[in-house]
Amino acid sequence: MDETEKLDHQMMVIELCNGFTPHDHLALAALSGEELVAQYEARLALHEYVDAMWEQAKTDGHDPANDPRFSAVAGLRDLTAELLGNADNAGGGPVRR
C-alpha cells in the first residue's frame, strides 16, 4: 500500500458519513425550527470555510483534485457538504419547508 492509499481521506469520509448520517437525520428531526436553521447556518459557514481553501488552492495553480497534499481538504469538503445537505434536507436551509 503506497502513501496515497493510506491517506485516502475521501474514502474515510464516505465510511464516516454512511455511519453518521442516519444518526444526524434523527437528531435534526428532533430540533425546533430555530435550532434547525442554526444548524444549517453553522454547517454552511464551515462548508464555505473549507471550500474556500479548495478554491484558493486552484487559484494558486494547484490541482487539488489530483494532488494528495489536498486529500484532507477534499475529505473535509465532502464531509461538510454531507452535513450541510442533511440540515438542508431536514428543512433548515434557505427555503424552509
Helices and strands in order, then pairings?
Layout: H1 3-6, H2 9-29, H3 33-59, H4 71-92
Helix pairs in contact: 2-4, 3-4
Write structural notes for this entry:
The structure is a single chain. The protein has 97 residues and is mostly helical. It is built from four helices and no strands. Helix 2 packs parallel to helix 4 (71-92). The longest helix is centred in the middle third of the chain and has 27 residues, at 33-59. It is flat and about 45 Å long.
Helix coverage percent: over 70%
The average pLDDT value, as a whole number, equals: 91
Beta-sheet strand percentage?
A: under 5%
Number of DSSP helical runs: 4
Compute the separation of the termini in Å.
Answer: 47 Å
Beta strand count: 0
Shape type: flat
> By helix and strand content, what is the structural category?
mainly alpha
Which value, in Å, is the CA radius of gyration? 15 Å
Report low-confidence residues grouped into runs of 5 or more. Answer: none
| Elements, N to C (H/E) | HHHH
Give the biggest sheet: none
